[in-house]
Amino acid sequence: MIELRNIEKKYGETVALKKVSLRIERGEIFAVIGNSGAGKTTLLRILSMLETDFLGEYLFNGKDARERAEEVRGRITMVFQNPVMFKGSVFDNVAYGLRVRNVDSDEIEKKVEEMLKLFRLERFRDKSARKLSGGEKQRVAMARAFVIDADVYALDEPTANLDPENARIIEKTIKKIKERGKTIVLATHNLFQAKRLADRAAYIESGQIIETGESKELFENPKHPRTQNFIYGFDFF
Amino acid sequence: MKRLAIAIVTVLAILVLGVGYQYHIQSQHRVLTISTTTSLYDTGLLEEAIAPTFKEKYGIELHFIPKGTGAAIQDAKNGVSDAIMVHARSKELKFMEEGYGVNRKVFAYNFFVIVGPRDDPAGIKGLTPVDALKKIAQAGREGKAIWVSRDDGSGTNTKEIALWKMAGFDYSKIKNESWFVSTGTGMGATLNYANTKKAYTLSDTGTYLKFRKEGLIDLDALVDKGEELINVYAIILINPEKFDKDFEGAKLLVNWLTNEEGQRIIGEFGKNRFGKPLFYPIVDVLREKKEPYFSWIAKYGLIEDDGEVTECPEKFRYGKEMTFFEFEKQ
Amino acid sequence: MAWEYVVNGINGAIKLVVNGDPELVDIAIRSVKVSGIAAVLAAIIGVPVGVVLGLSRFKGRGLLKSIFNALLGIPTVVMGLILYLFLAPAGPLGFLGLLYTEMGISFGQMLLILPIVISFTVSSIESVEREIRDLALTLGANKIQIMFKIVEESLSGIVLSIIAAFNRAVAELGIALMVGGNIFVRGGGLNTRVLTTSIQMYVARGEIDYALALGTILIAIVFTITAISNYLQKKWVGYD
Fold first, then answer.
1. What is the pLDDT of residue A145?
2. ipTM value
3. If you measure CA to CA, which chain B residue comes closest to C205?
4. What is the DSSP annotation of A66-82?
5. Out of A15, A34, B307, C190, which residue is the most buried by the measure of CB atoms under 10 Å away?
6. Of C132, C138, C149, the CB nearest to A48
7. Could you tell me the pTM of the whole model?
8. pLDDT tens digit string along A97-144?
9. Given a contact as 3+ CB pairs under 8 Å, which chains touch B?
10. Top-level class of domain C2-237
């Protein structure tokens, strides 16, 4: 479904990604693990076509993504680590992706209600989104992405800095979304989360993919010394 | 998008209509713009007495723009005014010589006064204006007195410069001496300043009386006699060949100002409030040659023209419907 | 002494307002009207310019921005003088007949406050632009939808810029005096006297108490407009 070949990305003089090659299959949860600053966010931004200025090849469904950036953006939705809320109610926030697609209002009502339920946000429906807590905002951000009928969701540290209760709701929902046949790319520094959710995973360090594999295999039996270093030295706190 | 377009069109439409309406209102009113001196304006004569009566009579609104005589003349040169009301003969003459002004008519006079603190440190009370200035300069140099000058190119300032000259001083030189303060503002502000500093200054009677009566200043009129102090107000129309202004309307104003009713209003203004008028009607004095004012006005307010003295030399007269005082030179 | 004046000023203001002094009401309404029109005009021109400047990236954009920022502090007397020369019948814009009219003041104040609207609009756009652009983009919005969303999100900043612009206009003296002329005819339809010009006039005439009373009213107007706009913003734009 997604294939990256030798992707390179620089911000000025800083190299963010170096010769990154990846394949992500339809319907899987693919985890990108690594410490902060390793290049996870940049990778996700390229997948979502929020960055189009990079070297290398990006194929989406076998075709060059940059040539069809708009279409690709319609099919991949990214959820940012920092849950930016639009002004307005929770409902307005979740409905945005449908409104810009000119979905009719009955349909919007139905789909948004369903998402709010999934993320246990019903009682916040008419509240100002910006007045919610961090965890609630993150849930709104997820709902706002999942309400769109995209093929791929790129989630950037969806549970970083969240309390266990919120994290649990979000993880549960990610699994539910996968069951609907969606593809999920999950960037996380949390090894356990990746292990719990992902089918396959890649370890990224200093902008380079060090090792890719079945997540079980990667976590229990890492081959590369740097991956080993990351996994065995994982900070439990 | 559609709603936005409608909103933009609506706003633009309101704007165009609004501007159109404003121009419509403006065209409904006949307005004369008169640039004038602050000494006429600050007394309230123009806005409180002349404008309302003239409007009632002719339906024309008078818009007075108060500035010093110099600035008022500049206003007229920019094509702003329909007429100017000023009191500085030399500047008026120049204004007409440059081709901007025509048909000068004098309409009122009063006197300048030299005012100062009650204790009169320079000892000028009762002196002639020229002697008084000499004394003030002397006291000033000894550090005992301060003189405040408007220094704003106004009619009062023009008179002041002339008086200093008569007293033997060069205004541009004494200006730099430490006892000599320039305010660069109107009569009222200058009086206030002189009051605060306990200084001497030259003022027109009208503004002085008003400020004195209302308790705004505590300065005494120390020198108020002497022909040099006479202050003649004139109105000059804008040359219609220079600017297309409301010449006919301005003519109406001049004729009304110098007829019986206009002169009466000028003479009565402030009588009740201040005990004496702030301005004196000039027409009767000239017609009946009332002395000594007639000679003083002839000397300081009229213009020499080919062996005669007149309000307006013949070459500056425009049209034939206005009449001007002319007298044999004495 | 000074405090006495201030207290007298406030007392005088209350008396004038309570008595509904018709001259005062006329002048105060004109102040609000003239500067209000200036603010609306400045918004009509300035907001779109600010939005374009905030959203687009082109050569010379930085220069343009710094020009508008520099113009924020233009002295009103200088502006008034330049406008006077341009609008005088002998000047290049004399044919408009704007000198010594209400419209003329509005026009002049509009030019004065345009940089405020533009600069503040640009910075409020820029403050939300990056986050909102990415978010709207990834949620599938097209260019125009993104633009509208960014403007919507910057709306409170833009409204604030218009209020600030109005406050500067209503409180300025240079343009109102030189372009307006402080004309007042009792019962006249073309008066141009506003609060600031009458304050300076009464100061010049030595009537400090009356001038201070008018000053108090001017300040009250500025505060009231700001408070109302804050309230309306909470109520309409809401959620923030």
1. 95
2. 0.90
3. B188
4. GGGHHHHHHHEEEE-SS
5. A34
6. C138
7. 0.81
8. 999 999 999 999 999 999 999 999 999 999 999 999 988 999 999 999
9. C
10. mainly alpha
